[in-house]
Amino acid sequence: MRTIRLKSLSTHYPIFKSLNLPKLLALDFSKFGATLLVCLLVGCATQTQQIKMNESKEQFKNGDLQNTAAAIQGAFKDKNTLYFMELGEVQRLQGSSQIPSSTQNLLAADQLVSRWEVTTSDKLRRSFSGASAYVLSEGFSSEYDPKPYEVSLLSQTLALNHLSQGRWNDAMVEAKKMAQREKVIEELIQSQVVAVSNVERDQQSNPNTRGATSRIENINGYPINLLDDEETRSLKNSYQNPGAYYLSGFIHESQGEASLAAPGYRLAIELRPQVNFFKTSIAKLDSNIANQAKKSFADTLIIIDTGYMPKIIPYQISQSFNIGGNPKLVTLTFPVIEKSTERYRPTMVQLGDRVANPELVANIDAMARKNLHDQMPAYVLRASSRALVSLAAQYAADRAAQQAANRNNQNNQNNGGAALIGAIAGLITGYSLQAINVTDVRHWSTLPAQTYMARMGLPIGPTVLKYTLPSGVTASQTVNLVGGYNVVYIRMFRNRATVLTSNDPAAISPTAPVASAPAVAIPAQPASVLPATLEPKPSEGTFAGFKKLWGGFQDPQSEALTPVATPAPAVPVPVSSSNLTPAPTPSNSPASGNIEEAKPYEPPNLLNSFQQLFN
Q1: Cβ burial, residue 94 (10 Å; 0-12/13-18/19+)
Q2: Among 111-125, 128-142, 162-176, which range has the highest average pLDDT?
């Protein structure tokens, strides 16, 4: 296929001279026009990826982790951050034997998150044009920008993996990283708010984009109630996780670091003051550390993950924009998070003869809603800006076609050229308006919806763990508790659960006792340019990126990461009927359902016609 640049269109196709291309380019095409087509191609790929992940949701809810892992590997063409997070999470839930592979994939994701921190900071700090490009470029890349709460949960999940493998020092490194990244995330969010404000002000000064807005209230029909419930409003922000902070404090306490444990406990209390054992832990911190050598029991933290992250889906809304004095109806697409489904509060967790009292410490579902609520101004500004630029291009092309027709009539010529100009105007509108109907709805879909915790002093040695599942049956198995500090992790599915414990010999690979991330090629950092040890990838021009996409769209290869081969996964053993007893309390599932009257998303399929146009 030949590559035709906009500047050479008039050379290859003389009729383009009558379009007065320089004037069209003045309509912000330097900022939007060409990138709309890139958005169209990459956006279709990312939408397809998330659709495949959504289709595997039922398998995951049923605890069919082997098929879920296969679905992840089939859905992702690019082995990006999200791929490694999804696969690493599912691998760890397959059982302790898969922990080494899980840790490798999560460490690969962690390296990409570190690079994301630096590149994003650089884009937002470098210049107004850099911030503007960042705000307006959503949906244009196959790479994945992790959500703030996902960054926190990545460190938490890695810490739990290290604990399973008996590496408490490595878990402490992850705990420290959570605090460090929180500062970076806070700065990035503040920078994004400023960037959106500056870009909106810039749009208002441009006659072609003066109607652009960042207020979701100006978009009629968006289900804002899904982002404005009581639980979401109660959150301070979308990235501070009380459960992760408490785990950080517990890890530091286990290592005798009172000065590092106390801040974790205090932050957990500040964010979730209603959790009783948070306050007890800070009150007993000094005495616990002073008497660590004398402990004759297993100080055990129980972590229970339940529920499932709701899907984030494209939601189409028709919106009217005024262009050339006439209202034009455009269909815009925004991300919408579905209603919560299958929430479950653990009704019974017992170790030996002692019954735990798990308390809700983190509502990840609400954190996801808070994040989307905070991101909506950027989504709305992007969509409205793209719509206005596309409509302005159509308006300019229509005027050019009319002027050409008038000249032809005056010169008694046929109107074939004007008709072609009109057809081009329709193509401009068709491609660009379908491109703006792309929004990035990717998310870490295998995360739980809620995290519960309890802390207990238990006898050292083998202990029978019993717990009631959402299906209403009770399962039991034996866990081994050592002297000192222990973590027992339970991930509940509908009719089964995965149980992981700290210091588990089965989680330590005999051939690779220390997990490492797949090799990531990272260039050296120029002196005094960026504060971290990573350098962002050089930016590519719009057409260079389009050419790369066009050539490698069929089977793109990862340039930076070597994916970890997935060994034959060990699926969690289904709950045996011999271990099932009627549940004392049936599970409580709230009324739920998908968004009503949402228009189904239809990915644009314009590739063939675009090839025909320029061949």
Answers
A1: buried
A2: 162-176
- pTM of the complete model: 0.76
Rounded distance, CA 174 to CA 569, Å? 26
How many CB atoms are located within 10 Å of the residue 74 CB? 12
pLDDT at 588: 37
Q: Tell me the C-alpha distance between 597 and 226, whole Å.
A: 14
Tens-place pLDDT, residues 331-355: 888 999 998 888 899 999 999 999 9
Could you tell me which residues come within 8 angstroms of residue 110 by beta carbon, excluding any fewer than 6 positions away? 154, 155, 158, 517
Taking alpha carbons only, the member of 50, 217, 33, 23 closest to residue 136 is 33
Q: Tell me the C-alpha to C-alpha distance, in Å, between residue 33 and each of 43, 137, 398, 433.
A: 15, 12, 17, 11
Angle at 260 between CA 114 and CA 515, to 5 degrees: 45
- Of 291, 292, 251, nearest to 268 (Cα)? 251
* Mean pLDDT value across residues 416-442: 60
User: Minimum mean pLDDT among 101-105, 151-155, 210-214, 367-371: which range?
Assistant: 210-214
Sheet holding 474-481, edge to edge: 354-355, 349-351, 461-468, 474-481
| Beta strand 298-306 pairing with 474-481 | unpaired
Amino acid at 346: P
Q: State the burial class of residue 560 (Cβ atoms within 10 Å of its Cβ: 0-12, 13-18, 19+).
A: middle
The sign of the CA dihedral 243, 245, 247, 253 is negative
What's the confidence (pLDDT) of residue 428? Answer: 52
At residue 104, does pLDDT exceed 90?
yes
| Residue 231 to residue 229: CA distance in whole angstroms | 6
List helix spans (H) across 127-257: 128-136, 148-164, 168-204, 230-233, 242-254
State what percent of residues in the chain have pLDDT above 90: 44
Q: What is the mean pLDDT of the chain?
A: 76
Lowest mean pLDDT among 202-206, 325-329, 513-517, 523-527: 523-527
Residues facing residue 491 across a β-bridge: 305, 498
Tokens at 458, concatenated: 């238990």
Three-state SS at 360:
strand
User: What local confidence, expressed as pLDDT, does residue 19 receive?
Assistant: 39
Residues written for the chain: 615
Enter the DSSP assignment of 599.
B
3-class secondary-structure state, position 135: helix
Most confident of the ranges 91-95, 127-131, 533-537: 91-95
Distance CA 420, CA 393 (A): 16
- Residue linked to tokens 């763990």: 465
What is the C-alpha radius of gyration for the chain, rounded to an integer number of angstroms?
27
Element (H, E) at 399: helix 364-410
State how far the Cα of 40 lies from the Cα of 473, in Å rounded to an integer: 48
Q: How far is CA 78 from the centre of its chain?
A: 15
Separation in Å, CA 359 to CA 306, 338, 345, 363, 470: 12, 25, 9, 11, 16
d(CA 286, CA 265) in angstroms, rounded, equals 12
pLDDT of residue 24: 41
Determine phi and psi for 457, rounding to 5 degrees: -95, 120
